[in-house]
Design a protein that fits this description.
The chain contains 6 helices and no strands. With 143 residues, it is mainly α.
Length: 143
């Protein structure tokens, strides 16, 4: 019976230890909203498919604490993004900033759609210029 209580207590405290930011970071609603927005846009560098808001690894916890400290010191969102990029690279941000290095990320989708449209138009025009085999149609043969 005593072992059951020890197990129950261990499980109870373990769930609290692994909770992700179980308390609010700021009392001010504007600062809290800004904090949540920032940590939602920063990639967990260990998980890579989660934001640091949703990750429970130690690195994400450290980054949340660092961002909380920077907001408390009055740093702007740009200052925080600069810090993250200087330390971890553009990969740390879900939305990379527009710069010479990331220009291809912003231009490539539009360029590929444009080139695909041109290719489609050329294929359609080429097929329309091909002669129709009238004999196959009259005999009921498949094309």
């Amino acid at each position: 019976m005593r072992g059951l209580w020890v197990l129950f207590a261990a499980l109870w405290f373990a769930t609290q230890a692994f909770a992700i930011d179980s308390k609010r970071a700021f009392e001010d609603p504007e600062l809290q909203a800004r904090y949540v927005k920032i940590i939602s846009e920063v990639r967990c560098l260990q998980c890579q498919n989660q934001s640091i808001k949703d990750s429970n690894v130690l690195l994400a916890s450290d980054l949340r604490r660092e961002i909380r400290r920077m907001i408390s010191e009055g740093k702007t969102d740009a200052d925080i993004a600069d810090f993250l990029v200087a330390r971890y690279g553009e990969f740390a941000l879900y939305r990379p900033r527009t710069s010479g290095k990331t220009l291809i990320l912003w231009v490539a989708p539009f360029l590929l759609i444009f080139l695909g449209g041109i290719a489609m138009i050329r294929i359609v025009r080429h097929r329309m210029s091909l002669p129709i085999d009238d004999d196959a149609i009259e005999e009921g043969k498949p094309y």
